[in-house]
Amino acid sequence: MPLFFPHQQPSFVRSRYKPDLIKGDMDSIRREVLDYYATLGTKIIDESQDQDTTDLHKCVAYIRDFTPIVDKSSQLCILVAGALGGRFDHEIGNINVLCRFSNTRIILLSDDCLIHLLPKNHSHKIFIQSSVEGPHCGLVPIGMPSGSTTTTGLRWDLNNTEMRFGGLVSTSNIVKEDIVTVQSDTDLLWTVSIKKL
């Protein structure tokens, strides 16, 4: 966080923007960082005994279980900063979380792109914020091939197009309109570039 506020004292920024909760298997956090936030009142949940789920999975499950929203599947949106750009196996693990919690809108954000899941058999309308998003985008079938995907609003729209690994995957496409629509018979990953501010 101090990097976002270079003209403020790092200690002030850390105490002002402290997490409510730190949850995970605690294998990648330094003990002094954990102790620092614990003294500021951050709740610590050590789940080092659970090696079958990722830290992101643990956190998303916690948010879903303890967010007081009546219809969580349609109203809850989780933004995950720093979810991309590191080790490839971690990135794939984060993408797997999108699939494991397909009824919750989760956006993975990095310095240069964002990714979220478009669940199958829905008509998706994506509103493009052209001042910060695009123009590059992609649609990637995840889990199984797509027998039929149709889009509007892209330079190279898909029209009842089959996509699969080892065949066509819609990468390096271009956003052409302010609204992109997507209809597919399988789950797709939507990715769009983020402009440098």
Automatic annotation (TrEMBL):
InterPro entries: Thi_PPkinase (IPR006282), Thiamin_PyroPKinase_B1-bd (IPR007373), TPK_B1-bd_sf (IPR036371), TPK_catalytic (IPR007371), TPK_catalytic_sf (IPR036759). Its main location: cytoplasm. Keywords: ATP-binding, Kinase, Nucleotide-binding, Transferase. GO terms for molecular function: ATP binding; kinase activity; thiamine binding; thiamine diphosphokinase activity. Gene3D superfamilies: Thiamin pyrophosphokinase, catalytic domain (3.40.50.10240), Thiamin pyrophosphokinase, thiamin-binding domain (2.60.120.320). Residues 122-188 form the Thiamin pyrophosphokinase thiamin-binding domain. The keyword Ligase does not apply. It is an enzyme of class 2 (transferase). One of its GO terms (cellular component) is cytosol. Its EC number is 2.7.6.2. It is found in: Cytoplasm, Cytosol. GO terms for biological process: thiamine diphosphate biosynthetic process; thiamine metabolic process. Catalyzes the phosphorylation of thiamine to thiamine pyrophosphate (TPP). TPP is an active cofactor for enzymes involved in glycolysis and energy production. Plant leaves require high levels of TPP for photosynthesis and carbohydrate metabolism. This is thiamine diphosphokinase. It comes from Lotus japonicus (Lotus corniculatus var. japonicus).
